[in-house]
């Protein structure tokens, strides 16, 4: 553990004149712990959940751009009839990688960024339960994502769709290594998610501040917790599917070969048993984010907190029972179809409960339409539209018409972009000052928001029309002959969708511009206050950005919205509530700092998570190219695990630079 | 071995769940980490292991289901009824079962702080596990010689995948057992030794209960 | 080793409900499991008609939960551990039985 504040007396316990005690360096040279607190090494080897969260977010944002470029190419190809920008083969790669990138390398890690950064802060902890495992998850994700994308340079990207249906995914139909990169890359990122899930579940269950019962937890933490439970049980299912696919493609097994007597539907079941909980994994974090944002900018508590909690858990639970609604047209038979159809209708109920609670939160509130609030309201509207088309899919007979058309594409982009992504953007604007110490520009933010809204509706709205007109998914061209005439013709609406894509891209670009304007050298944006929004939850009881140790002392919690209740006292009588401000946010924080803990121990950084993470793509390349690499990677992995288990708990005192003030309580070891 | 975060507990720590401390006989050893406050009074490591085992149910469930779906898809000469050697596999099962007993005795010894017997029982468990894996390898090579390869049929692919995954899990368990013995020997376990042994034990027993299912569904149920 | 067992029995009996079975009880449970295994193997050789599958599966389940409750200590530990595991177990059984059903696996 890196010691942040040392007591006044010297820590050197050895009597003068004796030889220095053997350090870890003299016993096992490779087992030292890193000590740097600045520079790239303080990021590469950190176990601090905040730095890890920022890195998750930065890498996820990078992949968002990549996925967006892939989408742009798709839309350019479909802007007119008989497009020539992408060949059929390249088009298949493009829509496969677009979806894979957006789902696995953008939305999931971005949600992980928020969860990593804010769960410990929201529950009053100093870090997560297993800090080195946290770093492992990050680096495994980064290396896995990079590995997956090297396919572009090594024969082509995966081309079987992000759902990778068998037997199309097998070697005769997908002869390049693209699908292998896809399967192995997702195995690697799956490890990151599974390890992260275990970490955050233990953190939430076991590291809450004194007095914070589960039903006094901030709602974002609750939703993120449900997501981790979903990941915990869903990832192993796709793991099985991916192993079967890998054995088929790389080792000659026939799990999905019809001529060998296999059932290709086995893949579909395994994939969608994972895949349906996956879509709730994508959207629930954003539901949690806006459940934080809406109350703050309505100056009202979240309406029906217990209902929001339980509906989140219900969505997570019922979500396991609906997967075959992705398979209505696959020949399951009427009984299966009927069962899954009814279950799918049922799951609209808890989602509807949330929409009602959010709306009632705003009702009668003192609304302030900051950019964060705009995105939150945007989610409610756009996700509802997506939900309505979803209800039409639940009705199996109508789904039989809709399936494999652009109508489905419309649905899931409204719920994923309009739901998950808008929620993430709400989180960016809401929490940016806390993470980075500066408020993003509201002016640029409004432009960012409205262009994204205009862009997304122009892009995905028309897809309802062209889908019902019969334009199939996953088809690299549409033709004049099939375009039709009149209001619903394909030509006009495809063009609109493509134009919408570019408006959307500009909107997203403005977000990056906003970041640049705010943080560039010479920026006039002042440092943000600790509590710029007059917020309600514990993560705001810290400086902006928080100190490395988060809280001066572990807070004691007595109610939901603890921070709010420290600032405001309820002087209403009986049922009526009237809140009078007794303290400002800064005063609450100052009070905590005045009673700071004298000794704060933080977990020490480590090399091993990155080394272990690095071994995984090596093994993966080995599966594709040369078995020796599997052995080499495996050896690195085993060595890293032993190094991990055997490294000392802290760096040697002698490894640290001497302090300037000679042993007084020193904070210069802590960066940030 | 663990790097859980240490904080000084806030004053007047209110134990909201006093009843839940009863029965967690290892909870009191939390403080080996130095006053670690935990909301439920439970060990982080133990929680993590149980969560992991819960997720493994989904993994093995998928592999078992794949086998059950494909178990009859083979040629007339190379199916379970022709290949299985039930007496041999029964002996293997018995070996694994015995290793569960020695594992539980190792945990019991560790709780008593009897490190010598802990290491002995861990060692016997590892040996029995090794014997089981050796038996599996013998079985697999026999099947292979009789014509059942990995890619021979859907039945063979599913069988080798399921039992292969199980065998790898056992092998990793053996490595963990041996590593634990070594770390106890060299005093490299900074936290609660009994907890470390218990965690290895939980993993080991899980591997055993997966085999209980495999033995019944794969070997004892005829085509 | 017998000496150690004698002392542990005396010590552990006091905390039976907290700390779970004694070493001697573990050995007894082991013999119980071994016996069940023997019955399972026997049943696979002897023809007991349609009772075969229910009996075999029943024995399997008994063994499974005996190890989970006693060797893995769920019966004596904080209930959260068991609950988290059972969620995984329950989900796995439900989801995979449903999947196999769609393949008409249980249809005769």
Keywords:
heterotrimer; A: 672 residues; mainly alpha; two-stranded antiparallel sheet; two-stranded antiparallel ribbon; 20 helices; 1% strand; globular; B: 223 residues; Four Helix Bundle (Hemerythrin (Met), subunit A); 6 helices
Quick summary of this structure?
The complex is a heterotrimer of chains A (672), B (223) and C (108). Chain A is mainly α. Chain A is built from 20 helices and 4 strands.
What does this entry look like structurally?
The complex is a heterotrimer of chains A (672), B (223) and C (108). Chain A is mainly α. Chain A contains 20 helices and four strands. In chain A, helix 4 (88-123) runs parallel beside helix 6, helix 5 (131-149) runs antiparallel to helix 6 (178-206) and helix 9 (305-318) packs antiparallel against helix 10. By secondary structure, chain B is mainly alpha-helical. Chain C is mainly α and 108 residues long. Chain C has helices at 2-14, 16-19, 23-45, 52-71, 79-102. Chain C starts with a helix and ends in a 6-residue tail after the last helix. Residues 1-17 of chain C have low confidence and may be disordered. Chain A binds chain C through residues 205, 229, 232-233, 237, 263, 265, 269-270, 273, 320-321, 324, 332-333, 336, and chain C through 80, 87-88, 91-92, 94-95, 98-99, 101-103.
